[in-house]
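not sure who needs this but someone in the group chat was asking about Fur-regulated basic protein FbpA from Peribacillus castrilensis so here u go. i didnt clean anything up, its just raw.
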Amino acid sequence: MITQLSAKGEAKKEELIQELLKFGIFKKYNKQLYELPIVVLQKEFNHLRGELKNV
């Protein structure tokens, strides 16, 4: 069960990273995107999505 949750979390993180890369975010917080926790990636993605809706 733990393995499945971990795999799903990693898949979600990979998807978020790919979406952020599409928006041109390559490096932030002096870390590579893969080193950031998923919570930070989600925050960045939601922030970008909000900006796109307001355009």
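also The chain has one domain: 2-53. if thats useful
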